[in-house]
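Chain X:
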Amino acid sequence: MAKRETQWRKVDVTRAIEAVKAGGVDVGRVEIDGGKIVIVSSADTNAAPSPFDDWLKSNAR
């Protein structure tokens, strides 16, 4: 038999978001893919600005 997708409830998502916020992380968005809840922070600390980003800052009007 095929494995059934895990059913999530609104309270599960709410608890996950509250736990992330309690950890000091700002929530950017929440993705629900099948039975998996993925919370993405609003500030991606791993991404360094690209040369294009630097150029945009210096040439913005």
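Chain Y:
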Amino acid sequence: MTKLQRMDADMNATGNEPEHDDNTMVLTNGTIVETLADFSKKITIPATLQPGGLVVVFRDPSHEDLEFFETQMKTAETRLEAVKRFGVRLCIQWGDKNGVTVPQWDKLRGIVSVTLAKVLDDFFPNVQAAEGIVS
């Protein structure tokens, strides 16, 4: 089970299984996470969490991106801040824009920001397990 699946299970207070197939998962908060053919992640945030809804696509990280993330983990004040910077780097679609800036990300509601960060964490579960982050 990936960290994203565990997060959804933890968020699911009703005891119902989230809807999903091999490439798509619907989180209990209504967020849809799709893994595309090129291994990028498409996240659809519903209007109930973000006014007007939001579609975000993160490209699959390269080796250089993972090195960038490792550096961010050492220099950022919090893990969430490091993941946010990583997300800004990987973002290829933010609504109708071709990316996102940190100030745009910071305007999100907390639950949306955390949901996006958890999706990004799902790109590298082995790193988390090695760090003892995954239980």
